Amino acid sequence: MEQLQKRQTAYITGLKGLACVMVMVGHYLDIYGYASDFTPSIPLLDRLLRSSWSFLVNEQYWLYLFFIVSGYLVSASSICSVFSLLKKCFLRFLRLALPVLFSCGLIYLLSLTFGFHAGDTGSFFQCEWFQSCYLTSFSWLDVVKSPIETIVFRRPNFNPPYWVLRDMFLSSCLIYFIRLMSSRWIGEASAIVTTLLAAVLYQKHPVIAACLFGSLVWLLQGNCTFHNHRHCVSASLLLLSLLLFLLPSKILSLIFFAALLILIPELPCLDSLFSSRLFQFLGRISWGIYSFHWPVCCSIGALIFIKLSLYVRLPSAYILSLLLSAIVTVLISFLFYHSFEHLSGVLLWKINSALCAVTKKKG
């Protein structure tokens, strides 16, 4: 178990990259999917969005992979006291709050530089979902308030995809508490409690339930009995979810991604794929992809679409604008990773060191 806690395998980073890229793709395709009037239509997209395989480009589906990975990684923390629990929760809040602050600052600069033009696309096609985004202006005060507004009050004014962050923070605190109590529980009590909590919270708080599901995978991987039968268990879960994916239930995506998390290390081809340079790169910049894909689409992407629509057909303008939005998003995410995310990491390390020093003095 101790060795497992210290090992953050490369394929996990690759899965984070896959999840965030597919969330971006899903949001971009939703602009067309939710449009009440888009003429001329795009036959290939029509067939895809109406097929049984449309879930593969549904951002909600891929979000659950992101949640499961988050719960899995959080579970590796060792909690031995109430002070350690409080410290972990505080650092987890900062781990989310600092990137949110810096991200919202960049989004504000994006609005000042290029403006938001999603609402201006109404003269070309009708998509109320897209064209109602970013209709209000922001200030630097809004940037300063953004971490509290987003993580505490669940008001992600700067970036709608941030709606998940509050529940992800709460799930982390819950997992930390279970880790603290696990040292006092007998046998597999941690896995049982985690499963029961996920079942209870699933209907009203699916994000928290998904993170708990990731924690359950981590707990199971550390169990010797399960470890000896992991091939049968993961293969059965994959088969079950593939057979039942047509049912309208998020639990199937949880089962599938949990099984995937277990099975990848046992399949060299998949392990090599998600450990490849491409997926490692996407995984490292995954926060930026998740944070900036939508603001960039509503700003630079919408502006490019409007300009292109004057010279090319609507479908071509739509596809080209989304491709360029994705390229700009990856570029901004790369720069953000090597600047602000690095700065966040340094600040967190210093805060953690200061808290550890305080603990030693008290001891």
Please specify the SSE layout and strand pairing.
Elements: H1 2-6, H2 10-33, H3 43-50, H4 59-74, H5 82-113, H6 128-131, H7 140-152, H8 165-182, H9 189-201, H10 206-221, H11 224-228, H12 230-243, H13 251-263, H14 268-274, H15 277-284, H16 286-308, H17 314-362
Give an account of the 3D structure.
This protein has helices spanning 2-6, 10-33, 43-50, 59-74, 82-113, 128-131, 140-152, 165-182, 189-201, 206-221, 224-228, 230-243, 251-263, 268-274, 277-284, 286-308, 314-362. It is mainly α. The model is unreliable at 1-7 and 239-248 (pLDDT under 50).
Question: Main traits of this protein?
Answer:
single chain, 363 residues, mainly alpha, 17 helices, 74% helix, 0% strand, disordered N terminus
